[in-house]
Queue: 3 jobs
Job 1
Amino acid sequence: MSGARDMAIANSVVDLVTLRDQSRSELAECINKMKGPKALVLDPSLSGPLGLIAEKQLLKEHGVEKTYHLRTEPFETDQRRVMFLVRDKIWNMKAIAKQVRFNQNNRQKLEYCVIVVPRRTIICERVLEEEGVYNDVQLGEFDLGLIPCEDDVISMEYPDALRECLCDGDFSSLFYAARCIRKLESRFGIIPTIKGKGASAKKVADIIVRLRKEVPEDNKGEGEEQQIDELILVDRESDLVTPMLTQLTYEGLIDDIFGISNGIVELPSELISSAPQVGDKKAKVKVQFNSSDQLFALLRDANFEQVGSIVKKRATFLKAVQDEKDSLQGKSVTEIKEYVRKLKEINIQQEKNLLSLHTSIALEIKSLVTSCLFSRRLEIEQGILQGRIGPDRAVEFIQHLLCRKEPFLKTLRLLCLSSLIFNGIKRLETLKTEFIQVYGFEVMQTLEKLEKVNLIKKAESTSSIAAAAANISAATAGISVAQLTNKLTQSTGWEGMKKKLKLVVETEDDSFNDDIAYCYSGYAPISSRIAENALFPPGGDWTAAEEMFSLIPGPLFEHVQPSLPTAATVTTPPKTAARAANTRHVALIFFVGGATCAEVSSIRHLARQQTRGSAGNISRHYIVGTTKLISGDSLLGTFHDLLPTPARAGSAQTSRHHSSILRV
């Protein structure tokens, strides 16, 4: 599995392997703070991210004999040293304190070390003090940083950033994001230009600039060759519409239907021919997906309508390679050697297994996508975006989903989408009552949180809008209230934004395939439009685009970071040929609050399109950074998580995050 991860990031335009290795060595250093054999107790939310930078063998080499998940109930261990590796959450500290007291009550004298991710905070210390165990543990911290997921994707894997900022008023995640970017600069050189849109994005930019001035020891790498030319910060709050939509790329649909977590998908065992067959039809098999799988690399960014033709081409290619074997008789030694080399590169058997796997997945997705309910949902979503479907029909379909008791988060996404597009729902109180009746009282808190952050809200009455329009009309032109009300709605709401940014591409053919709108079959994500215009500002000036993005909340900004005159600049290594010839442009597009798979695909599409359209044969490389790779379900799930993250009592005691993953 480690080899597949290395292959997935080896071809990056910047050296992500060394970035991953740095995190690995820092993790080993943290584990070594407690000498000798030990038990490692993991926060369950860290299992996946840690699996991307380290493997079980690394832990064993540094004395980890057993690995557990932190639970709400204490557990017994035969190890005399216990190390906790957890996020900086109050409930984690309380769970640790409960474990320590449990062992003390059983007269077990153990050594404890608590490593807090991403940093040790005063709140964590205070909770341990209040629980009476502060003096019994050794405290440390580990900055997980940016984790390379693919050769063009790096992620903090910090799932709660948006909720903490909007709902809790906790902006720690913005500091962590800025610190991660500064860490990148220390390795790959100063990023000269920072652009962006949105309140949280601007806070991150301001913290980056401040850290550069206040923490001079972090500037040690700025004498290195500049490898990233600009940083584009995109605020998730500026585009809450996109995550609520159904993703229509191959990878996006896999995420929406099966769920992708840290590159791992749990698939029904019947979809995988090489998996051992068991009687339980609900049995799941973990499969790792990344660009080391050549077929997945071809499929992941494609609109699902194109998947069939890509799979067919791959099958034809593999058959041609196999058929070539039958015609080797009479060929020269050189030709035979070339065929053997080709076989080694392709690995026919593995490619056949992968072809079978993706064919099964595609057929399963197709059966769901062509179902009546799924098709109807897509029709409603597209109709809402295009303006063909009004709020009444949208609410009617939401009630239909409630009657069928469809999954809570799927139904909630459509409610949020409708509220965002229509600027509120008139019958919101009725819908909230119906949600509670169908899904139980525990969803009441979730709905309140979403109202607090305006993901759902009650629509203003027609009379109040008309009154506002009348007041404006009295001071302006003498047109009717109805006309002015309509004009206000069209120019300041979704319709105005849609026209200004060309968010909806309506064509009778597939001409939108040349635009980033292909990811959602005709809808261009607002976030990707921001990135597109920041990369190529109209008129060449990003700050002049203020009027274009005036309907999107949050400020538009640009910072220029001058290089510091240090001794290191004198000994800067010579530039690579591509950079010396000014034929390569690298941009980091960082999503503050999370990015969907389809948005990542749209950025890749931008890189391909803009490279083809660039003068002077400039190759453009875009790296996507994010606080977390998300889907609509996982984003709303952070508002719905009413219970603390440690595993419940009765769950599997030993951590499974290093369990074997199916190799196909």
Job 2
Amino acid sequence: PAPCGRIAHQIRSVLSTVHGRACSPGGSSPRARSSLPKARRGSPSEAFSNSRMPTAGVSLMSPASLFATVARRSTRHASSTVASLTTRARGYAPARPGLSQLAGRLAAPRAVSTVTAEIEPPEEEVAFQRGPASVHAVEGPLAVLSGVGADVPPGTLVRLGDAVQGFILSHREPKTFALMYAAGQGAGGAPSVGAGSGVAVSPGDAVEVLKNLHFRMPSDDDLRGRWIGALGQPMDGGDAPSGGDRDLACGEDLDGAIIRDPPGVEDRKPITTPLVTGIKALDVLTPLGRGQCMLLTGEPGTGLTRLGIGAVAAQAGSGVRCVYGATGAAAEDGGKGAMEELRAAGAMGHTTVVSVDGDASLAERYAATCAAFAVAEGARAKGEDVLLVLDDFTGLVEFTKDMARLSPQLDNPEGIIDEEKMVEYEGMIINALLAERRRFLGTTLQRVARMSDALGGGSLTLLGIMYHEKGAYKGRKGSNKDTGAVGSAEGADGTLQLPAGFDQMAPEMQAKITAALEKKRDAAMKAVEAREAEAAAKRPEDAYTQPRSLVEEFMSITDGQVMVENFSESNGWGISVKDSVSRIGTPGAAGPLKSLDMMQLRLDVMQADDMQAFGNNGDEKVQMRNRSSAIRGVLRQRPGETAALSAQTVGLFALQKGYLKNMNADEAAARVNEAVTKAKDTIPEVMDALDANPSKALSAENSDLLASLFAA
């Protein structure tokens, strides 16, 4: 028992040291705490998903490697001391070394006497190398490198062979992945993806890693209203942003760097300011705060691209800067369709579209994802509030699979990826690939933040789109109404839209009305099925769906999700109340809506649907059904329509003050539209004040003026 206890203590100590945690089971030292990755503020879920996410470049240890490390514990101390002194002398702060790297150092430790020689800083641009770095393989514009080392930050520039340039995308030990580009060979003299004409890169070519130089995107001022590619090259036929001879490298300040570490805790401040999306169901049921990361998910055909474009269009005149990243289904036409929709909506003046061609590689799609973040961060650094709509997460997700395929771990048989390999990760024994992917995803999504006043006070808000497989969320317990979808046409799920007072009618009249409504419903559903069949034959998002397990992994990392259940051109999006949630909650909600107890609507819809499915007939059931129907009518919204905060306030005021009692969806929608039109004519100053001050609560004076809209 005593030797076993000592071994267990050594195992815990090694794991704690490598992950930057406490060096003893009972506490954490100041040095260990200082090395922890910076945590994000926001949702409770981030205590696991974000705040404890290891930094980029950390590998994972097998049980055999773990015990080998314990056996060599005394050697580790001397080797790590050498590495620490070397790091400080070179003047940079690399990510913590991976465990497989650490094991290699333990096997062949350097003598302490070599410290003096290593302290001398390098004189050339080449740095960080652990032996001869070389090209291992080439796949399209992606170069797989050997011998670079995981402590070289992603985004760092490299030279491949004699003349080809590139920058590091990521690491998966023992390999490194770089995207090659040709400077000056793109449109307008901008860089182009790939090695370029007249040159080639082959396995075995030498690689130089350029010290403290990172790939830079064009400046924010040159990107407003532009449509660009993953490297900042123009795709709208215009001149190259920032000029064809712009400097592609940035130094240690990382100004404009395409990939950078997320902000630390001390660099952030809490999310307390709303970002009004102009989508009623989102703003009322799942409010979005400035600096929040929100997932939009639904089956193919649920109009997620249209929803994201609508949110961007709603920012016109609000002062919110927008970036639209078309990297998945929206890039099938190179992003042209999304750009044209934004231009038609008058939204390009405050927007940058970042996209790739439909046949782009996964590496380029991932680079475009990082480029969209970099453009948004450039505006945020100037103190602006930025909305980034990422359509979709394909590049981020699929590139992790590409890395696993191209760089199997050393302790696996050649060419075989053991998907069931289990490792220790954050105190748990879980699947190795899952742990690696979660770290990779979380590090990227942590770039979303609201910055402290000392750093300008800007914010980056993310609406990220992910399509899940058809039927992935069907067949859950309860009836078809169990998810509480709102916003779409009532009856879209097969229910009947009964008129007010139906239960008090004579049985003969009820039968006639029911028969007429069933006939109307059946015809409508057949028309919907025909439209869906036509759309399914040509919708590109079918090729970009993700399994339910991955969708729910994103749900656990982000600050909330919006589940879109159905979509139609005439009635817009049907959003599931039970499956949609904002983990920031009311701090990110608009002030006038909070004043009207907006969150009560979620409970009302869910209670009404449960009562409809399981409750007994009676007055309470009728009242709850009418209430749910009125809510659906108020939140209904056609694609292309932008709901101003003032209009949403009028609708919610009518609901909460009882002015829509006993009305069905159509009647409630008509009554609210009439009141909004009247408000614009009679109290325009109140409507303008509501739109101009989204954080301000609804005053008693304005409440009285809104009540006058519904006076008989």
Job 3
Amino acid sequence: RMQPGAGENLRRARGAPVRGRGHMGGAGKYIEMDRLDKVVNMEEGSRSIHKERAEMLGGAIDTAQADKAHARLKRMAAFDSHDYDPADNDLEEDARRARKRADYKAEEQWRWAMSVLIGVVMGFLAFTVDGLIKKFNGWKYGATTSSISPGGAGFGAWLIWVIFSCLLAAVAGGLVSYVEPLAAGSGIPELKTYLNGVHLRGLLRIKTLAAKLGGIAFSIGSGLIAGKEGPFVHGGGLVGGGLSAFGSHTLGFRTKKPSHFRNDADKRDFVAIGTAVGVAVAFGAPIGGMLFTVEEGASFHSTGMLWRGFLATCTGVLTTHWLDQLDFDAMDFAGAKFGVHRDFGLFTDDEANYSRVFWWYFWEVPIFAAIGCMGGLLGAAFVNINVRITMWRQRFIPVSDKYRRHAEVVFVCFVTATLLFIMMAGSPCKPIPEAYRTAAAMDTDGNGVSDELPGGVATFEYGVETRRQIRDQYFRSLFCKEDEYSSYGQLFFVPLADSLKLLLHLGEVYEQNGTDEFEQHLFTMDALIMYFVFMYALMTWTYGIGAPTGLFVPSLAVGAAGGQIVGRIVRAMVMSTGSEIVVDLHTYAVVGAAACLGGATRMTISITVLVMETTGSMQLIIPLMLTIFFAKAIGDKYSMGIYDTHIKIRGAPFLDEPEHAGVAVDKLKVAEVMADSLVTL
């Protein structure tokens, strides 16, 4: 709360007579710091140390600093807090004494049942959203591709592409602007603030759930540089908080029995469990999802919450696997292999043979550390640039201006779609790799030659079945001739998540060629560089618009491209020495992806496990840990993580960990930050 006298300080800072604090080197006017101003000023000073002048408790601050401090206090006044302390009064004591053993047993059973139910519901919602995204992408890419002809002008294809993209973006932006503004962005800063104890009105409403999960399907379908993990985190928190309440304010009902968990502390735990399930079903990573909540989401931990979240994430991922298999082939449900698919994989584990795909050498350890440092610098630059863009948005495209905010979403989508189409249309054409080109020729000769994959594999259980189909899906001609493929279109003219999969895994099947020979698929360097630059810029611009958008997949895609670039440089240097050592480009892509995500979010353990679970790169656990450590260490020197930064921009009174609270903890007493007069009833 703003202390008595804070308004007086602000008036003095704006031109009223100012009381001096003594002579300090001939400087001009000074104002006396209020006690809360001292804390704010010291917090800011601890994050950006000014070496040219000493920080002095009780020293004078200038007008700009005073305005900034009081503006922050004013923003904080708009928030309320949750009551996580147990009620302790005579009525509560009598109620607890009247409870029977069966009541405690029933409550515990409902805790576990709610955890399972949260996982099942989020599994169904994730399957539905993924299905919508596939439908939207199928319609958009199908209609555009059918209008493309080799050597054609391409205007008609561009028009179809842009119309589809902008219509889907208009729906995503409309759900935010006209239905629920809190559905914008990833939702992770808001959920993190809520779990810290700050109440955000409307954050857990049913219409917020509909706008968030419905909007992310349209956002990704439109081609915006966005991922689904952040909205799924928000959606999971909504499901967890809603189901555990046994009622709904929006729908106007409340069950008499069961009536458990109607206090802030229990609701907080179920919201935290829901966020873990959201990450788990978004990536098919149950352990990584739980670690995400422990590391980044929840401010209050307990062993019971951890175990129930463990069960919930397992149930959620299991539900999505069941539904995916039923949708793929319900008749072969009993004989289908589970556990061999990766969310960011092109092929199943046994087909890709990950034990032969990922490896590293001891001399590459410093290179991985350097990649981590670059990821930290890129993440810090992303945060600082995005902050400037966000400030510009707050000034010219405020949340209160629905029409302008909606128009920005459509405009960003228009620019993104046009840029991606230009890159595809202007792409140089490259010969299709020999293995696929030979297979295609044998198929069309009519000689009856088998169209098997290397190693004698005739068909795949999931996805593409033959190398001719691999060629048609991943080496499309588009504006090129039949025996060529679009080298830029391979990365730019596919959904963002698919381009990430290609950067990480393309070529895994035919690289071994069924023999001891090894030849990796090489993306063209110009395609990798332009993909890295454009996606980084679009990601920075897109994050924060008035539509549901996530950050994980864009960061991973940018980092994977950067990792491929570094890998190609290392590969060229090794080859220049005449060495026969084979540098694994897949390893560099995975390490680069983790470095970029770690640099942007500053998470460590959860990212390591998430990347391993989603890419199958168990062999890279040490390089991943080392890379992410350096990404966080370097990034923290220049900025906070993107989620903590947006919490600060919002002005929420977020309570940091004690070691992150700054020097004020050591230099101030409680009495110095308390109001002088009591507020009484």
